[in-house]
Amino acid sequence: MEFTPSLLALQLVTGIALGAIYALLAIGLSLIFGMLTVVNFAHGAFFMVGAFVGVYFLGVTGNFWFSLVLTPLVVGAIGLVTERFLVRPLYGRGIDYPLLLTFGLGWVLIEAMRVLFGIEGVPSSTPAALRGSVDLGFGYFPKYRLFLIFATALVVLGLWLFLEKTRYGLIVRAGSRDGEICKVLGVDVARVWLMVFGIGTAIAGLSGVLAAPTRAVNPEMGIPVLAESFVVTVVGGMGSLPGAVVAGLLVGVVFAMTSLFAPAYAELSIFVLMAVVLLVRPQGFFGKAGLLG
Amino acid sequence: MTSNLANPRRRSLIVASSALAAGPALFNIARAQAGAIKIGFPVPLTGAFSAEAQDQVRAAELAVKEWNAAGGHKGQMCELLVRDDKLNPGEAATRTLELIEKDKVNFVVGSLSAATQLSINAVTRERKVLFNSISQSDAINEAKDWSLYTFHEALNPHLTAGAVGRYAFPKFGKRVVYLTADYAYGHEMVRGFQRAGAALGVQTLADIRHPLGTADYSAFLPRIQALKPDVLVLCNFGRDLVNSAKQATDFGIKQTTKIIAPVLLYTSRLAGGADAFEGILGGTSYYWGMEDKIPSAKRFNDAFRKAYNGSVPSDYGALGYAGIKSVLQAVKDADSVDSTRVSIALRQLKYDWYKGPQFYRKCDHQSVQSVVIVESKSKNMKDKYDVFNVLAIEEADERNLRTCEEMGHKTT
Amino acid sequence: MRAVYEAIRRHRVAAVLALLLVFPLLMPYHALAINILIFGLFAVGFNLLFGYTGLLSFGHAAFLGVGSYLTGIAMVHGGWSWWWALALGVASAALAGLVIGYLAIRTRGIYFSMVTLALAQIVYYVFYKAERWTGGENGLRGIQVPAVEVMGLRLDFLDPVTKYYVIFVFVAAALWFVSRLLASPFGAVIEAVRENEKRAAACGYDVARTKLLVFVVSAALCGLAGALRALHLSVVPIDSLHYLQSGQAVMMCLLGGMGTFFGPFVGAAVFLTLEDVVTTVTKHWMAVVGGVFMFFVLFFPAGIWGTFIKRMERAVRA
Fold it and tell me: Which class in CATH covers the domain with range B158-284?
């Protein structure tokens, strides 16, 4: 029998590693939606920009860790500018408008990367320290992908600590619950939303720089990522961070397992999952019911 | 503001007439001179294959320039009308309609994907305009899509995969796994490999179909690792190949398995880098490094270097050159620009533009040509262009193609 | 001047059709003009659901694609005449609208948009995999309409001008239908649902049934556009069903003006012409089109035609 337990175990680990990237992507999208009720259609583009910027910084500094830190800052800065000048004028007009704006922004970002870095994309490789595979007992697994799981866990932990344990995080959470009251209480809600958008896009950029060594970095790489991010965010619940993590891992594992048994239908299976969740429980696993209902 | 522009009729008239006035000026790039022989050239100038397409344009323009410099056809010059089809079959059809209806082109050469060439062909054959396709497809030669006006300059998947299989399977082993992009091209490649392999006793351990455009192949690699095949065939193209090659390398597949691909694109190799492609061999229609063995390759390369600052033509670029040259030669031979007459002349053409002797098979207008087997290089590279070693050249042989009957053509 | 405007407003269908009759003369080439007719209809169909009922669907490409494919399959595999194939295409799209609509209207807001996206992607994969019927990634080829027999007259469909006017007849009929629908009491109910669903329900209207009905009509119109597209291009590309195609419908509606009768048509014309013109001038058409789109979202949310109508109304009522 071809499908031995060790193969299944290895496939599961693969699914979790895949899920880690999905989770990271979904967190950025969910954060912006949950706090600002903005559907960021440029999310895939920010991911792509992060990949390009990451490869660029790696080339310039020669140090992967530097690029890992610098890239989210740069992408987050672009996010701040976007929120301040493009998204902010649209608040209050209904949720369609920021969605549409970010849709157009995505196109502009893709073309901008083409102009800056060329149409072919740039070659990217795994940083030397993380190359090679590790023998997990039931098979060999790339070291870098294990690092990805670890990095995602760190980011999730950091974000959770920020939101739950810091004062600023408290303000962010309160602002998402009820912006009006916060304003009345003297909180600069506009500034909070600006920061949240920046953080959300920074995380998208971080996922990009983390994903860059594993795949081809080209201007179109963000397009399928956007659809996948939506699937995960919907399944987990738009606006819920634990939801994004759980759903990310779930979708990763579903994708990996389907790839083992019916590989041609792997991509279809996650859209079916999305449809089923939306029809049975639209708020996803952890989302608040009635959100924008 | 109120009186002049408030009247909607007048407003639309103003808009309309400015559009009309501006139209010709804006389309100056597009408009052709009267009296010239016009060849429409729809290729994906934007999108995933824009690098290849731009090379195709450069090479095609070189062919046109050479022909015009030699006097054209009785003084009639050729003009190339390049259009961007955005790698989108609907857009390709629209552009072809524009080229035929508005620009009144005599012939169409182009395309860089199976779907777009089939789309262009659907439009050209209905209007009896000659079309010479310069990218891979098995379907375009089949009776269902074919017409007297349909020509196929490029390789087809069956021939390419067969050639690579015939070279690699005897050398590297009989236990084979295919990682195949799940679309017509991928299926056609697998069929070509399996046909060649059947004669050699090759065993297919698995044919794993992945969705086209997959970026992350990690879900497929553990199974491949477990199967431990002698040969892993990456039956995909372009970016998919770059991603799968990279990730297969990361998963350590190369330690136990030889990786081959049906088509090793020059641009894919540059995008993926030496590491990812190390040890991978595959087929191609042309590699500039052939010039020490093939005199016409040297001639072509030198002309290209002279025209374009020392750079060399890529595989698909060379097809742009040949596609145009064949059609223009047929115009001379037929002494006419009528598509029917030129098609008849093209059918009889024997030529050697850049890679050795070629001709079009009568039943399906497939250009019978050689296939070059190359292997990626990572050491001893003389310059940035020196990325492949030529391992072998499989000579042009009609028998390596599928038979006319199999393709649905009735042979008399 | 006021009388002219009033006349146009009252007889909007006639005015639009008059413009479209001379449209080919304004366009650089006929294939583009025909594309504008087809996508104008697509956008008008989509707008019925988006602008008038307030439901943002990201899956309308499914109906465009179903219309195209069923028409094509009937002609290529079934040998049907184009007329019957067209009818099949429209009916199939309406049926798809019924199924997807029934599932989708159980959700609201952003979830509605997401579920239409997911369901449309499923349709995409089904058609992609059914290679024997649809050609898969290669698309469906071989749709040929050489001549149209009408009342003893033989019209050459390959001639671009003839093709334009034949397609025009269908688009004209569809536009007339939409205009009547919007002017009817049902049209008022649709807008009431958009403005305030709860209140509409409180007034006694069956909101779910209204939504579903609009969904089906919208799907049928988009299906007609798809069927006509199949006849126009002789091929059906697989990306007719992709969500990027759905995104285009949204862009066209916004550019032109959601919630106006003629706006989506204007949006389609502007979008396609812009794309066409910009492509010949620069490789970076994506940035230009994206930038223009963002500009409109920020400063002219009512769209070109919508803004124009607003200014006209203000000028006329002043």
Answer: alpha beta
